[in-house]
Amino acid sequence: MSPSQISILTSSMLSRLTLDRNFWLSIRFYASAKQWSQRQRNDQFVKKATVDNYRARSAFKLVELNDKHRFLKKGYICIDCGASPGGWSQVASRKVFRKVKAGEERKPTDGCVVAIDLLPINPIPGVEILQKDFTHISTQNAIKKILDNRKVNVVLSDMAPSFTGNHAVDHARIMNLCESALGFAETVLRKGGTFVCKFLMGGTERDFKLLLQSKFGKVYHEKPASSRKESTEGFFVCMNYLGEKEEQAEEIEEDIDYY
Ligand SMILES: C[S@@+](CC[C@H](N)C(=O)[O-])C[C@H]1O[C@@H](n2cnc3c(N)ncnc32)[C@H](O)[C@@H]1O
Hints:
Layout: H1 3-42, H2 44-51, H3 59-69, E1 77-81, H4 87-96, E2 112-117, E3 127-131, H5 137-147, E4 152-157, H6 167-188, E5 189-200, H7 205-213, E6 216-222, E7 233-241, H8 245-258
Helix pairs in contact: 3-4
The chain binds S-adenosylmethionine (SAM).
S-adenosylmethionine binds next to helix 4 and strand 2.
């Protein structure tokens, strides 16, 4: 066989291999898309989301967490980080908004929800929406501008990065988002406030829980029924924020003065 014949043969074998690879990739994609649509059809929370007019089945995770711990109350101020398509913001607004008469403006005491996401969120009546990267300081300043010096009752984070399929990487990325949300929460939460965040199990969540326990009176590790069993996601519900370090120091001094 001449060198040119060998080269033609090699390139034809290579293109055949590429074709085969694309073929098997399409089969895999088709199979997992089919599995996904089957799972969606049989999922009770997908059905319930349609009935209850929620944009996403994820809404029920917040419904369950709140049913258990009751941290969303009328008139509260709530920040929803990683809010698209808007399921959690729908739940939060239904819980914290007081009814306002038609034509009347919403007062600061009528409840407030600020929703932030990299992706667009279709409008939800009364909810302030920011399409920005939450981790940027400019975004956090934009939220504080909306707050206008008001302290927040609840900071929620359902933020999740685009998953790579490498669990260690995905775990590290989501824990970074948790830390970013916690850092922000510490600057806006009122004493006694609540912080809720989603994480993926992977090891470092244990240290993160210890950190949370140093800042909140109670920290619960939750896995709501609506969170898929096969998913390693979990939620920390942190209640009774102890306040910023300075606030705590001031309080100790006040106590000393008093006695
Ligand atoms: C699981 S979804 C949230 C679902 C939402 N809670 C609901 O009920 O509709 C996670 C969201 O986190 C968002 N996200 C990830 N990183 C973010 C970041 N740095 N800033 C803002 N949003 C982010 C993603 O764009 C995605 O929409």
